[in-house]
């Protein structure tokens, strides 16, 4: 494998990992040690060759088709992924429960399912925002504005919602 190809492959691996909100250490934890952070990092830097078998296993772990990891292929989605929706849990704790109660319960459920209790931020998906919009009986864009006004979503979330509605 050429050095340039290895670096391109590594860039694809890193892009998929970061799109999923995982650090190298997070990959090791999520895989229960099957994928060591140092090994995945060396694949991403292009310092270490990855076999076809290991690449297929890594694609399976990330839940993506192998071709998404191969250089020279275009991703199935948009060229630039929409910004992430990240809830500021510390600020959410200061929003009155009569306003934020449903969101607090929803976030707690996601944390429980993921085993993610850092207590500072929580990434949510577009589907989560649509579900919350139904719960709050608002459109996703109106709910986004409300969450921004509460300080629990960054203003970049507008772009994510606009991208989804386009």
From TrEMBL:
One Gene Ontology MF term: DNA binding
Matches recorded under Pfam families: BldD-like_C, HTH_31
InterPro entries the record matches: BldD-like_C_sf (IPR038099), BldD_C (IPR037664), Cro/C1-type_HTH (IPR001387), Lambda_DNA-bd_dom_sf (IPR010982)
Coiled coil: none
Domain annotation HTH cro/C1-type: ranges: 13-69
Gene Ontology biological process terms from the UniProt entry: negative regulation of DNA-templated transcription
Record protein name field: Transcriptional regulator BldD
Native source organism of the sequence: Streptomyces xanthii
């Amino acid at each position: 494998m050429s050095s340039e190809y290895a670096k391109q492959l590594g860039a694809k691996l890193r892009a998929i990992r970061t799109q999923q909100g995982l650090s190298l250490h997070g990959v090791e934890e999520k895989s229960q040690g099957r994928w060591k952070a140092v090994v995945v990092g060396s694949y991403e830097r292009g310092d270490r060759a990855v076999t076809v078998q290991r690449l297929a296993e890594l694609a399976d772990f990330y839940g993506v088709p192998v071709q998404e990891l191969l250089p020279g292929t275009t991703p199935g989605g948009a060229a630039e992924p929409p910004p992430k929706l990240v809830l500021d849990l510390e600020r959410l704790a200061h929003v009155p429960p009569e306003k934020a109660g449903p969101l607090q319960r929803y976030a707690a459920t996601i944390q429980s399912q993921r085993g993610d209790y850092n207590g500072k931020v929580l990434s949510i998906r577009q589907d989560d925002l649509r579900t919350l919009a139904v719960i709050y009986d608002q459109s996703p864009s109106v709910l986004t504005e409300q969450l921004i006004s509460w300080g629990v979503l960054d203003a970049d979330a507008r772009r994510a919602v606009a991208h989804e509605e386009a």
